[in-house]
Amino acid sequence: MSPEGSTAMTEARLRADALTLAYDKRVIVEDLDVKITDGSFTVIVGPNACGKSTLLKSLARVLKPRSGAVCLDGQAIASYPSKQVAKQLGMLPQSPVVPGGIVVEELVARGRYAHQKLLRQWSPADEAAVADAMRQTEVTDLADRFVDELSGGQRQRVWLAMALAQQTPILLLDEPTTFLDLSHQFEVLDLCAELHEQGRTVVAVLHDLNHACRYATELIVMKDGQVLAQGAPAEVMTAELVERVFTMPCRVMNDPETGTPMIIPANRQRRRSARTELDLATA
C-alpha cells in the first residue's frame, strides 16, 4: 500500500527497493521501498530509533543492506566504484570522527578526494571549491584552527563544508543542525534551501518537525522502520499523523511567516493523558 500523501512514483536517480537493514541480528528496516524525488529538498522525520539515520546510511552506501538494494541511476549503488559514487553523493554523517592533528582547511579539502586523479592532483578548481564551501558555511576564519579544538557547532559547520566541497548533485545530511545554536540552525537550513534552489537534490534527517515543514519540499515520515507518509508538508502533516507517529496530541496551523504547517503541542495535561492511554493499551 502506498504511504499517505504519496503521489505516483516515477523513476528517480536515488531509490531503495525492498530494502531490509539490520545491525547484527536486530532488524531496523524491513522490505522498504522509497524514492527520492529528483531536485527535491526531502526531509526524513520520525521518532528516535525508527530507522531514519539507518535509511540515510544505506542511501549513501555506508550501510550494506541485508536484502534489497539501493539504486543510483537505475543501477545497484554497490556496483559502482567508490570514487564514482563520491562524485554523485555527498554525505554528512551524524557523528563524524575527527582525524587527529588536522586543521579546518585540510579537512574541508578532503571533500575533493573524488576529483583527484593520478595525473591531476590539486588544481585551481579544487582550491576554489574549498574556498567557496568554507565561505558558505562561515568557517573561513577558522581555516588554520585544529578541528578538535573547535566547539560542537563550529565543528558541525566544518563537516558540512567538507560535504559541500565535493560538489555533488545529491547531498545527504544526517541531523545537520546538531550542536548548532538557533541562529546557526536556520543559517544551515537556509544554505540547504539555497543549494536545492540551485538544482541539487538534498536529503536531510531532522528532529524538529517545524523546521522540516518550513524547509522541505517533500517529507518522508517514518515509524518502526516503515514509511507512513510521503509528500509535500502541506499534504501529509496533520494532527492525526503527528499523534499516530509521536503519540503527541497537537494542533497543526499555518506558520504566519511562511504559510507552511506549524505544529503546536497540546498542553501538558493532554499529552500526559495520551501517554497514559497508550501505556494502558499496550500493557
TrEMBL record:
SMART domains: AAA. It is a peripheral membrane protein. InterPro entries: AAA+_ATPase (IPR003593), ABC_transporter-like_ATP-bd (IPR003439), ABC_transporter-like_CS (IPR017871), P-loop_NTPase (IPR027417), Siderophore_ABC-ATPase (IPR051535). One of its GO terms (cellular component) is plasma membrane. One of its GO terms (molecular function) is ATP hydrolysis activity. One of its GO terms (biological process) is iron ion transport. Its main location: membrane. Keywords: ATP-binding, Cell membrane, Ion transport, Iron, Iron transport, Membrane, Nucleotide-binding, Transport. The keyword Amino-acid biosynthesis does not apply. It comes from the Bacteria. Residues 14-249 form the ABC transporter domain. This is ABC transporter. It comes from Paractinoplanes ferrugineus.
